[in-house]
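Please complete every field before forwarding. Incomplete forms are returned to the sender.

SECTION A: IDENTIFIERS
Entry label: holo-287
Bound molecule: zinc ion
Molecule representation: SMILES string

SECTION B: INPUTS
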Amino acid sequence: MLAAAALGAALAGCGTGSTDGGTGSGGDGAASRRSPSAPAPSTPAAPPAAPAPAPTIAAGPGGLTPVFERARTKGGDKVVALTFDADMTADQGPRAARGEHFDNPRLIASLRKWKVPSTVFMTGRWAEEYPDQARSIGTDPLFEIANHSYSHHAFSSPCYGLPTVGPKAMKADVDRAFAAFRAAGAVNVVPYFRFPGGCYDDRALRSLAPAKVTAVQWDVVSGDAFATDADAVAEQVLAGVRPGSLVVMHCTRSAAPTTEKALRRVVPELRKRGYRFVKVSDLIARG
Ligand SMILES: [Zn+2]
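SECTION C: PREDICTED COMPLEX
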């Protein structure tokens, strides 16, 4: 059905080629222009305390939103960041009401059990649907929550058939997601943004400049969206990871059902190879 097709497109967009037209234009050398500015959004004074401001990257030429893809680690330092897109599109409430699961509590529980620091790129709509989980993730120091828009609509077009956000509405869509995280009680919120579908262009980078976020892409595609073979996902990740890599996966069990199972291989194998898991903020801090 149409809605399912749209979700499929959206998820596929999160996890497919980092080389398609809209990606990669802003990453070169950006990591070296890191600045300590742009603190995380302020949060209510309630325990646990908000973390220290997250490291960000200085704006690109003309104030464009900077883009981060992977760290150029010094001396081949074996660190890797696993990232999980918690996808839910603005119009998918009725499907959730009918029982479709856009969350993945088992994945989060396993990451805790394995003590794997991770970054969750959450849509605002997801946080509204699962406020208890958003708060739980967003108050656990093992995790940080980054912004994946409120609506999960496209910020450049075409983008896997997603509806498009106009330039004037882009910052508001991002702000609305941060507000949803705050409303849920999340405090470990970082000023990073992943474009839905990974689709962006200079107009989007310009329109989002006032939002003061660092856009975060990836260099390793897990292929977990709609995958049915966990081993294939694991092998793709293991084949792609190098020092400083950033892996894109999903935290949406209805459309990425094998992610947790794939990680049961990926996590011990990467550790065996000498890798340490870090959050995106740690990767950016390394430049
Ligand atoms: Zn997504």
